[in-house]
Specification:
- It is a single chain.
- The chain is of the alpha/beta class.
- It folds into 2 domains: about 200 residues, Response regulator (Rossmann fold); about 160 residues, Response regulator (Rossmann fold, 3-Layer(aba) Sandwich).
- Strands 6, 7, 8, 9, 10, 11, 12, 13 and 14 form a 9-stranded mixed sheet that branches. A 5-stranded parallel sheet has the order 2-1-3-4-5, with helices on both faces.
- Strand 3, helix 4 and strand 4 form a beta-alpha-beta unit.
- Helix 2 packs parallel to helix 11 and helix 3 runs parallel beside helix 4.
- The protein is globular and about 65 Å long.
Length: about 400
């Protein structure tokens, strides 16, 4: 009798242990972003945004479900390194999801691996329009350059007779140039000229001199956000383009929030079109900024890369909750196609199910001094739910 009871207890205990093991679930996120190299300062913003969302919403996870970040540094625009890291995360670490990525070339290198392994890939920054067409397992929670640059071109054509473009010579820069040129011409404006500058360590002075000689009414600039943007503002100011009557405009990268104080007076009055500003007065944004400063320091300011991390993590949490911690790749992608958040810090967002790209507001912003500090003040909403215009214009 005792042996029978012992055997029954052991069997029950075994079943309980199996059940507990099956119930406990760790979701592994292979998080690839830039901590070194060009714009290596941006990776921490992305990671902090994702971790902050998880901290604020930890209690919403299904019982027994945990999320683990496997953080990797792709060292800037380095597609070979990004591909190697993604392969290791998929094969060796057996991650459930891939996420992150600052630069387009890195995202493009990872895309075929996501397809082959059927690992959903949530992009939190890289902004070239074509990226999501490279794999059915990609969803983008950041932006495309067409989303800001196309409405920028439409708006600029109404305000300035002649517009010149200066962009970094890689995918997002080409997208921005194409979008502004097309929108400007369609809207009856004139393109005074275009120039592309090297992505790494450019000397902006000779390019700015070329712009000055062309005498446009406005200069539209796209460069990767961060220290490079400050260098652009310095060259623009040093060569006296503002004094000669040239207005500096661009997508939001050129006056990214965390760099404004470093830019100084040269940034005042710069007009940009973008989906986010840390100075926005939306309650959801004010709560986000307050949480950011609470956790990371009163003098720290979140930028659009941080919001990409925050919203990307919101989408990940959504698919985890809907599947109760059991991640099926194809079910995950179907869920991502229907993701919506009416209370993102940037305003209402959703995913376009046809393209797996974000749909979001785009704001006209001006750098002003607010409370003694420089801020991107949203002065007009140019579109409340902007899809990627490149895909809209190139529908088959």
């Amino acid at each position: 009798m005792k042996k029978a009871k012992s055997a029954a207890f052991a069997a029950a205990l075994g079943l309980a242990l199996v059940a507990t093991g099956a119930f406990a679930q760790t979701i592994k996120i292979g998080f690839i972003t830039s901590y070194s190299g060009l714009n290596g300062n941006l990776g921490p913003y992305m990671e902090r945004g994702a971790r902050l969302y998880l901290k604020e919403h930890q209690k919403e996870l299904p019982p027994g479900v945990n999320i683990e970040f496997l953080i990797r540094d792709d060292t800037g625009p380095n597609p070979d390194k990004a591909k190697q890291l993604a392969q290791e995360l998929i094969v060796r670490d057996k991650v459930n999801l891939l996420a992150g990525v600052i630069f387009t070339p890195n995202a493009m290198a990872i895309a075929p691996l996501a397809t082959e392994a059927k690992v959903p890939f949530i992009i939190m920054n890289a902004g070239t329009a074509v990226i999501t067409t490279r794999s059915p397992y990609i969803a983008r929670l950041s932006f495309t350059l067409w989303q800001s640059c196309y409405p920028l071109g439409q708006w600029a054509a109404k305000k300035f007779k002649r517009v010149y473009t200066l962009v970094s010579d890689f995918g997002p820069g080409h997208d921005c140039e194409d979008a502004i040129v097309r929108a400007t011409k369609e809207s009856g404006g004139e393109v005074a000229g275009t120039v592309r500058v090297p992505l790494v360590n450019p000397d902006f002075v000779p390019y700015m001199q070329r712009v000055k000689d062309a005498k446009p009414d406005a200069l539209a600039v796209f460069i990767p956000a961060g220290k490079t943007a400050t260098a652009v503002l310095k060259a623009f100011g040093d060569l006296g383009l503002a004094k000669s009557g040239v207005k500096l405009i661009g997508p939001g990268d050129v006056t990214t929030d965390e760099e404004l104080e470093n830019m100084g007076e040269a940034a005042l009055g710069v007009l940009t079109v973008h989906h986010y500003s840390a100075a926005a007065t939306r309650p959801a944004n004010q709560a986000f900024v307050a949480a950011w400063k609470r956790d990371y320091g009163a003098n720290e300011t979140p930028n659009f890369v941080a919001v990409g991390g925050w919203d990307g993590m919101a989408a990940i949490m959504y698919v985890v909750k809907e599947q109760k911690g059991k991640i099926d790749p194809d079910r995950t992608m179907e869920l991502l196609k229907n993701f919506k958040d009416p209370n993102s810090p940037r305003g209402p967002i959703s995913i376009d199910p046809a393209t797996r790209d974000i749909v979001q507001p785009e704001y006209l912003r001006e750098v002003r001094r607010v409370g003694g500090k420089l801020a991107n003040v949203e002065i007009e909403t140019l579109g409340a739910a902007v899809k990627d215009p490149w895909k809209e214009l190139n529908k088959k």
